[in-house]
Design brief:
single chain, 107 residues, mainly alpha, two-stranded antiparallel sheet, 6% strand, globular
């Protein structure tokens, strides 16, 4: 099924990085969501997409996504795509909008 004109389906483009990590994170997110709901805290969840270069994936798996300042402080090398809106980890809610920033997409 097409997600939008000219874009292939998500299934044809996606593959798991580490399935056990994804299961762990999904379970953790569901438990936190349940806890927030029972404490009457806001519990809306959005999905964010982040694109990077494939060569950054090993480091992301080890250290997670980091801002430019965090990478500098920890002497982690990575190509920098810019910071139009300030230093941060940039995500979007459209899985196709920012593919130009890298071939590896994270959710």
């Amino acid at each position: 099924r097409e997600l939008s004109a000219g874009n292939p389906t998500i299934d044809s483009l996606s593959s798991a990085v580490a399935r056990d990590d994804m299961v762990f994170m999904a379970i953790k997110m569901l438990h936190l969501h349940e806890s927030f709901c029972s404490d009457l805290k806001p519990s809306h969840v959005d999905i964010g997409y982040h694109y990077t270069r494939p060569e950054n994936m090993d480091r992301i798996r080890t250290d997670g996504l980091m801002t430019h300042a965090e990478r500098t402080a920890q002497s982690v090398g990575a190509l920098h795509n810019g910071s139009v809106f300030g230093d941060g980890v940039y995500t979007g809610n459209n899985p196709f909008a920012f593919k130009s920033f890298g071939e590896a997409g994270l959710v």
